[in-house]
Specification:
Two copies of one chain form a homodimer. In chain A, 20% of the residues lie in helices and 31% in strands. By secondary structure, chain A is an alpha/beta fold. In chain A, helix 4 (232-245) crosses helix 5 (257-269). The longest helix of chain A is centred in the C-terminal third of the chain and has 19 residues, at 306-324. Chains A and B meet through helix 2, strand 15, helix 3, helix 5 and helix 6 of A and helix 2, strand 15, helix 3, helix 5 and helix 6 of B.
Chain lengths: 418, 418
């Protein structure tokens, strides 16, 4: 019944001890949002040739020196660079060639005169009204990336621009951390599948779905193993199945003493499972269990109430998931946080970190965090809320008007203009 | 060659004119991150019965009035509520029943005494040391949601907590906006597939991959149609194919005059396509084309340079994608933005909104935005950058030390502790 609760800082250290997942190669077109598993270094210079950045005329810049509107340079057009081709001619003094944006400079040319700064005298001759300096309107080999330069660091979450850079180097498959597979079990004799109408005394299986969605939020792959009754051998069988399938196992329920006892008993019955945490000094979420298999899988026993399970998920599982996929998170940076003024006094019992649910209200330029009160286990406090505010365990509460950091649990930026 | 450029505010209004996509029903377990297509109202009270929120004893609160450590109330245990069952007995005065968290109160009980506030005298009798008030440690029907109450609003991006609420109501399939299908075409004779080694004068097809990833970033489904040469009939065929497959068509390239002319010519040749925009007063990204089919599909002609294409995508396509999926975005809220001090003077030519790439640097508590300069078309400016700063068209630049809003293009929070 009574257990030693662990403060969150210690829990994070324990989570740091879990091993990284392995890596896999995915097609570049599917690599968005994945985490790069190793540094990527430029395999060659980019661009590989002198490219024009404008539509105009490739010239030798010396031929334009001193050119003005009243004293233009006169140049002979000796060719055109077709897009995507290597020019088969060379510019001599006084010569130029038509070129388009992205085109390759012919040899003898070192710059490009914009079409706007020239005019045609006849089919073969242009006047240039402005001088260009060497490399003007041109990018040269290595301007983008030098061979051997570090382009992307391991641990980078690949954004469209990064995928673009990899495409430029011809990387058709990228080595990324595997997405964790999460085996999810709901426990409790009171739980029925969501497709059933719960008879009196029973409720639907909420946690399988909220945890499944939470896993997706952090790019993990949920595997729903359904509902397990408060029964030792059934739970043992489910756990064995879960260990086969999941890189991590999330068990919700067990907030009643009976189920918690069964969970602990079954976990202890596995010789290769070590129970690391049995109780965390946060509220809601105190009766959380963390265990580890000898091959490094994390087993999390989460409270049965959705609110408690979600708080533990957002506060701890987010960190765990980023950690094992090589993102070495800064804990306070996992969630977007915004500052707001709390709208009323909030008591806190002390000795544990309290996470209260708040709604963000914008009035003019000021942001307010309005606490949503409600008994433990009410889904509505989370659904109506925008985020969480942590009251640290050395505080006895918050004062109305105090500035607090709100951990956002939904994107309110484009809904509320915050 | 010359075209009238449209300011961004007008472009947004034009984007507002595109119709919403239709909706579809998806399994609840796959609904994370999807956009709810219609309001959801509670179909019943939640919870449906009086539930205990603690392990302890169900009691009639009157039997505990005045109970203290020195003068406890003595109650007889007449039964236990098995989890998930409707109690088959009724409490009379002086009686109590064991109950677990989540259990259904027997009739005659109105509250729960925590196990910590009681002790066993014998197998059948407890002492209660603290009085409880009616409904203490109990949630009653409707505490979470009242029947008919609005639970979730159309346009909500479904988060784990929302999915949990839907599960509680037994919603196994959710009506959400369809994810837009995006047909993506790269154009230009200089482009080769990324799996090929580009011969001199050619480059790899970067934009198919960066735009594909960009689509995924906003939950759209990319369809890569590959590379199209600067040739009218080939481009026409590709466009016809794209119209069959995509809710929207994104064409990159055409930054050279030749390809831009072909794009416009072919678009104009379709009787049911209207060209809405031909040039936007932003830099990079000016030569952007926006057209619309009579059945409401958006056709976007994007610049060929990855940097320009990405800026247009982040500044406009993001808005377009949120708009057609029912999210009616607040424009300034689409991206996370942070305030930082610009580290040097930046010139801007005026008359157009300039988007410069910046890197965020944290020094102590101060955030700095360091401009990354580089010629148009360099991928590296985006890869090394963390975001964009807009210099409005009525400004001639930024002064060193000025506070700017940085539109973040990657999550720097947990990498840089920002």
């Amino acid at each position: 019944m009574f257990f030693k609760v662990t403060p969150i800082e210690e829990v994070l250290k324990i989570l740091d001890g879990f091993p990284l997942l392995g890596s896999e190669t995915v097609p570049l077109k599917d690599a968005y949002g994945r985490v790069l598993a190793q540094d990527f270094f430029a395999t060659k210079e980019l661009p590989e040739f002198f490219r024009s950045t404008m539509d105009g005329f490739a010239v030798n810049s010396r031929d334009t020196f001193g050119a003005t509107g009243s004293i233009p340079s006169i140049l002979e057009i000796v060719g055109e660079v077709p897009m995507g081709s290597m020019p088969q001619f060379e510019l001599k003094t006084g010569e130029c060639a038509r070129i388009w944006t992205g085109g390759m400079l012919p040899s003898g040319a070192d710059s490009v005169v914009m079409i706007e700064h020239s005019s045609m005298i006849d089919e073969k001759t242009i006047e240039v009204y402005r001088s260009v300096v060497p490399l003007e309107n041109v990018i040269k080999p290595g301007d983008d990336f030098k061979k051997g330069e570090k382009v992307l660091e391991a641990g980078t979450v690949l954004m469209p621009q990064d995928i673009g850079a990899l495409a430029a180097f011809g990387i058709a498959g990228v080595n990324v951390f595997k997405n964790p597979k999460i085996a999810i079990i709901s426990t409790g004799d009171e739980i029925v599948p969501i497709t059933e109408v719960p008879p009196p005394g029973k409720i639907r299986d909420v946690n399988s779905y909220s945890l499944c969605s939470f896993a997706r939020k952090y790019n993990a792959e949920p595997i729903l193993l359904g509902i397990c009754r408060d029964e030792e051998s059934e739970f043992r069988d489910k756990l064995l199945e879960a260990r086969e399938l999941g890189d991590s196992i999330w068990i919700s329920g067990g907030s009643s003493v009976g189920m918690r006892d069964i969970t602990i008993k079954v976990l202890e019955s596995f010789k290769d499972v070590e129970i690391l945490i049995h109780g965390i000094s946060i509220s809601p979420g105190k009766p959380t269990i963390i265990a580890r298999t000898s091959d490094g899988r994390g087993i999390f026993g989460l409270p049965g109430h959705i609110t408690s399970a979600m708080v533990v998920a957002e506060i701890l599982l987010s960190y765990f998931l980023l950690r094992i996929t090589g993102q070495s998170p800064d804990y306070d940076g996992i969630h977007h946080r915004i500052q707001a003024e709390i709208t009323r006094n909030v008591d806190s019992s002390g000795g544990r970190d309290d996470y209260i649910r708040v709604k963000i209200i914008k009035e003019g330029d000021r942001l307010f965090a309005e606490p949503i009160f409600g008994k433990s286990g009410l889904i509505s406090t989370l659904v109506q809320g925008d985020g969480l505010v942590r009251i640290e365990r050395n505080r006895e509460g918050l004062y109305k008007g105090e500035k607090v950091n709100v951990i956002l649990l939904r994107d309110i930026f484009h809904k509320k203009g915050v």
